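User: Could you go from structure to sequence for me? I need the amino acid at each position, not a summary. Structure tokens:
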């Protein structure tokens, strides 16, 4: 992969549509990806990642002080992350709310081999069939949610607040 870094700062990404990554699609960056003080709102993807689709990132992904709202997708209404090769995903001081998906209304983390940390954030008011707030599937690295609020999410199937399936470990602390 190329060694490409991306920083999106003090920006709004809204009202976009695509098959994958309605707001933003990022694949094989090779370098760090940073979203800081952003609003990602009202985007639609017919497949994964209504707001953000991170496909196979090769370095750290940092989402800090973001508002990710009212996005829609089949998987990962707000954020969909698939298979980090290297680096970690860190979400902090962010709000993920009002997103919709069949699986992972707010966040869908799939096939991860690197650590994930969500801290000082709110995941609320998201809806899905499974994993209303957050859906974590097939992970082999530690995942941690700390000092965060997961509330008011809805799933018509399993896991209104969250769903952990097929391996991995999740630590939730306050």
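Assistant: Here is the amino acid at each position, in order:
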């Amino acid at each position: 992969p190329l060694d490409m870094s991306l920083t999106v700062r003090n920006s709004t990404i809204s009202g976009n549509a695509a098959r994958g990554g309605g707001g933003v699609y990022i694949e094989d960056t090779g370098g760090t990806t940073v979203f800081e003080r952003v609003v990602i709102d009202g985007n639609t993807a017919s497949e994964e990642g209504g707001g953000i689709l991170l496909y196979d990132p090769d370095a750290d992904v940092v989402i800090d002080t973001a508002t990710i709202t009212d996005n829609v997708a089949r998987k990962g209404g707000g954020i969909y992350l698939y298979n980090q090769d290297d680096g970690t995903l860190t979400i902090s001081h962010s709000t993920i709310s009002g997103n919709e998906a069949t699986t992972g209304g707010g966040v869908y983390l799939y096939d991860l081999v690197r650590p994930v940390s969500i801290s000082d954030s709110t995941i609320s008011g998201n809806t899905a069939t499974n994993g209303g707030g957050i859906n974590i599937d097939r992970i082999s690295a530690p995942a941690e949610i700390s000092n965060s609020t997961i509330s008011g999410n809805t799933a018509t199937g399993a896991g209104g607040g969250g769903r952990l399936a097929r391996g991995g470990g999740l630590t939730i602390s306050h």
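One structural detail worth keeping in mind: Residues 116 and 143 are 5 Å apart (CA to CA).
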